[in-house]
Structures are given as structure tokens and as C-alpha cells.
Amino acid sequence: MMxxxxxxxxxxxxxxxxxxxxxxxxxxxxxxxxxxxxxxxAMVLTSLSCSPVVQSPPGAEANFSASRVVSGDPWKESxxxxxxxxxxxxxxxxxxSGISTPxxxxxxxxxxxxxxxxxSPQTDHGFETDPDPFLLDEPxxxxxxxxxxxxxxxxxxxxxxxxxxxxxxxxxxxxxxxxDTVDSDQFKREEDFYYTEVQMKEESAVAAAVPSxxxxxxxxxxxxxxxxxxxxxxxxxxxxxAQTSGPEHSGLESPLPSGALSKSAPGSFWHIQADHxxxxxxxxxxxxxISWAAAPAAASPLSPVRSRSLSFSExxxxxxxxxxxxxTSPPRAQGSARKARGExxxxxxxxxxxxxxxxxxxxxxxKACQRFLD
DNA sequence: CCTGCCGGGTT
DNA sequence: AACCCGGCAGG
Length: 374
Ligand SMILES: [Zn+2]
Hints:
The protein is mainly alpha-helical and 374 residues long. The chain has a domain at 150-199. The chain contains 9 helices and 3 strands; from the N terminus they run αααββαβααααα. The protein has helices at 11-16, 29-50, 61-71, 166-178, 241-245, 265-278, 284-299, 347-351, 361-364; strands at residues 149-154, 162-163, 195-200. Strands 2-1-3 form a 3-stranded antiparallel beta sheet, with helices on one face. A hairpin with a 7-residue loop joins strand 1 and strand 2. The radius of gyration is 23 Å and the shape is globular. The site of zinc ion has 9 residues, from helix 9. The structure holds a DNA duplex (11 and 11 nucleotides). Residues 152-182 form the C2H2-type domain. It comes from Marmota monax.
């Protein structure tokens, strides 16, 4: 009837949206985005082809990032959210494929190489026995006792490496992810934050994250965000065009300082770790599901408008003081109460309404945000 | 006011 | 399916 006719940009709302071109052409977001994607893809491809590392990385990192980029936009909720097929409403506007199988989000966490990292029947000699990460990565798919073995798993966004010694994992993290050289660890022991202790059982790979900090209980609230790893795969962060294009544009009033924090995958991790430090009950799963969530927040410019607090520290008010004396009615049998609207800055607030194309799909559709869950 | 999002609409 | 928006709840 009239709803979808290029809405003559009614009132304030429309004005708030696309500040550009409110005169000519109306439905232009789409083409714009596509253009961007293509550009980005091209750019990344070019740089990739020029990069020294083409197909050597032991892990799947390079592959991963590449495919991600090529496929289009990194955070289009394609399936990454791996929404929990339970709790809260189950309707799900999107559903991201009817797959309700809670399969492990980790693409490479397959139980194939959990057994062991090397096929030597010999028991470990005195010290740390770690397969060199650069030589064998996911071999030795078979053989393992039915005993629970403690291992250490790399928590990096897309590295599911599991080693059996603590030093090994540290070394792995340092070398591969932090890109640290032996002498540059002057900063601090960040490696401690990137691995977790897991207990391997039998053949199935069941990881159990330990609440307390593994190894060293160092409590670093905020690891210094700095650009690390010179050549390691860095997630393709689709910075807002305003930021990437730079001064090319003129109209928009986007100062976009973005001074301290900026790009590189690790950036996304700082948050996670920060949270992690304060609120531990986390299973490796949430990492995968949250990694994307935090990334944009850190890398994207907060909307200049609105003098609200633009601090990027999760409120995380009360982690639920579960004890006795609960008066609320536990049995929620009766009419469900609208889900109590979550209290976490959602895409709208984070990116601002003028960067709507950066919101998660759910937010754009005015559905429950899937990027910044509660 | 503003923000999150359910329900329901159109393509 | 994907996409969008009215309108409501709740701060
Ligand atoms: Zn969202």
C-alpha cells in the first residue's frame, strides 16, 4: 500500500539515519554496502597475495581470515552466533539455518587431534614435552588412555591449539599470537591470559574451563592494547567507511579520533580477557561467540553524536547474587514477561543510529540483538 | 524523552 | 527465507 514505497524519510527518524543524501536517491544503503564489500575483498586479496605468507601457516588462521574476507562481510550473522538453541525465546526471526545442533563452534576443535600431539609411546621425560608447534600441529589422531589428562588450550579466537605442557602453550601463544620475540616480553606475562586448562577425557574432547586463573593468578585488569604480530592473521575488520576512507568524504561530521584502540584481531580479545578476569564462569564457547561481538566495539568509532559515555567497559553490574532469601517467583509459568529487555549496550547505542549498517542484523531488524547479548 | 524488541507486515 | 517498522514496555 504505502509502507515500502521509498519512505519519504519521515520525520526525525529518517533524518537521523543516513545523513548523506537525503535529497536524491533514497534506498542506497544496500548498494553502498556491496560496493564496500567488494572493495574490501579486493584490497585484502591484493594484500594477501603480496604478503609473504601464502600457504604455510600451520594453523588455519590464514585460510580462515582469507575466506572470511572473500566471502563478504565478516560480521554478517551468518552462523557465527551459534545461537543457543534454548532458553529465552526460541522463535528466532532468523534461525540461521535450522540447525539446532549445539556443535562446537570451533571449526578446528574437532576431536581428531586431541589424543596427543605426537606418536611417541614414550612418556615425557622430565621436562616439558611439547611438540614443536611449527612442526606438528594436529597429528596423532589416535591412541590415548582413558584417563583424564590435563592439557592447555589456546584461547585465541580461532586457534584451538591444545598442548600438554604449560610452558608449551605459553610459548605457542607468545610466538604465534602475541608475536613476541624472546626478548620483548618486557611488558608482562600476557600469555597467561590466552590459554586455559582443560581436561581431556578418553577420546572425546571435552574441555572444561577452570574458573581460577591457570598457572599464574596474575590479575591484570587491562592488558595494554598494542599492535602485535607483524604478519599474523589479523581479522579483517570492516572499519566504518568514514574511518577507512579518511578525508575523502567531506559532508559527514565524523571526527572519529580512534586514537588508542584501533584494529587488529587482538583488539577484540582485550575485552574478552578483561571480562574474563572479572567474571570467570566462562566456557571456551563464549569466546567464539563473543569474539566477533567485541571486535566491532573496539574497532569501530563511536558515534560522535550523543554525549553519552563512550567508555568501552562492560558495566557488568551484579553477576547475580545467588543466595538464599529469594523472594521473586521462580516458576515463570504464567504469561511470559517480555524477556525483560537486556541491559547491555546494543548495537544501536554502540554504533549510533547513523551507522546503522554496522549493526548486527537483528538490531537492524529491531529484533533481539545477537551481537551484544546480555 | 530514549532504547530494546515482539509481533506482524511486505518483498 | 530476508527485510522492515509500529508500537509497546521499561528505564
Ligand atoms: Zn545488535
